[in-house]
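Question (not urgent): is this output format expected?
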Amino acid sequence: AFAAFAMCGEAWATPDISQAFGNTIQSTYPDGRQAEVYLQQGGAYQSTGRRGQHTSGVWRMRGNRLCLNQRQPFAGPFGYCTSIPERTDAEWSARAPTGENIRVHLVRGHVTGRKGPPPR
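Got this back:
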């Protein structure tokens, strides 16, 4: 559920998360599968995990960290926070909650179901 993205502990300035509204935060795993997170103004999110599972919940910013709390299909036992770079116009490296290294980028529009590496 929270396997959409995670960041290494780099110190960045507070990002403008509004760039994500109406767009997709997409993570690519080493096996090429992808996960997507869709943030909405007002604090709701939906996500599609790399295995196709759909979850939703609430989000908030804590400095440069985006924190997700799953509510559907069940309330998560804990929140998940990850650092977001100040600029999201380029791909960044991250570590998934599973420990895998992933690539994360902001894609224009609401992207779903695409597999394989992101377009260049």
